[in-house]
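Q: Hi! First time doing this. I have a protein sequence and I read that you can turn it into a structure. Is that right? Here it is:
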Amino acid sequence: MLAPRPVLRPVSRPAAGGLAALLAILVSPCGAAAPPPERYDVAVYCATAGGSVAAVAAAREGRKVVLLEPGRHVGGMVSGGLGRTDMDRQQRLIAGLAGEFYARAGKRYNQPLAWFFEPKVAESVFRDWLSEAGVDVRFDQRLSSVKKEGARIASLLTDQGASYEAAVFIDASYEGDLLKAAGVSYAVGRESRSKFDESLAGRQDILPGHHQLRVPTPALDADGNLLPYLADESKVVPTGEGDGLIQSWCFRLCLTNNPANRIEITRPDNYDPRRFGLVRNYLRALGDAARVNDFLGISRLPNGKTDVNSGGAVSTNLPGAGLEYIEASPARRREIWEEHRSWA
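A: Yes, that's right. Below is the predicted 3D structure, encoded as structure tokens:
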């Protein structure tokens, strides 16, 4: 975008010392200087649950901490819909700052600990916690680049033009964006059994279970074409081999059975029913035997709300659609994000 031209208007002769100020006003729209770097002891990138807790821990040690979040929320998956904690029988193992989070959430519901909680409550807990610890939280700060001194990160530059220096940088992103920008080597997807002599690595055999089709289901549409999101069997690697694939992703849905608290679920923009051919074929194959949990795993949360997760083989999960995400540009990531959202 072109910078706006300064508007010149007749002015009286400036007083002594005023000429420099006038010239600064006239030229500033065309070439504002970048702000100086801000200095912290610890800079945490991404306000996921881990990033938020890491920032709190460092601040409690008396460090000056900044938490840089590309979006507008804190808490990551914990505040993004995953309100049903997968603790099962392992409650006694959850302690430290993780245990403190569940205790803080419990206070919102007048109970010692809250393992099931509403997303808005989780985010409120994180925001209050960060504020109490004195963490400087900055939103809309997406990583643009880093500067290094030798092997260490010296500063982080965001797409807003802000620069942050710190003695310690913590990459708390789900994708490892900061470490990648710093040149750290990495691998994506599952590897073969032979690479590190791991017996459970690589592609596994398909076993009967909750996330498998319960009945034979056509994989082709009415024209004989393979349905969207299905892979050609010839591309499936042998058992135990690496294929670089990752777990499928889904949106966790917070729904309600309280009519007064509902927001209408509307048809997504650019809705294309052909995307859902496998859903249609599976429903037809199941017939009267179809159940809600063939598609949705519903856990109840307080105040008449839910945490909806993937259910059976055809569910809110969208297999294969997220493979590009980790190494994609911000624009492409947004497209993948929207593809998953509209699927859900």
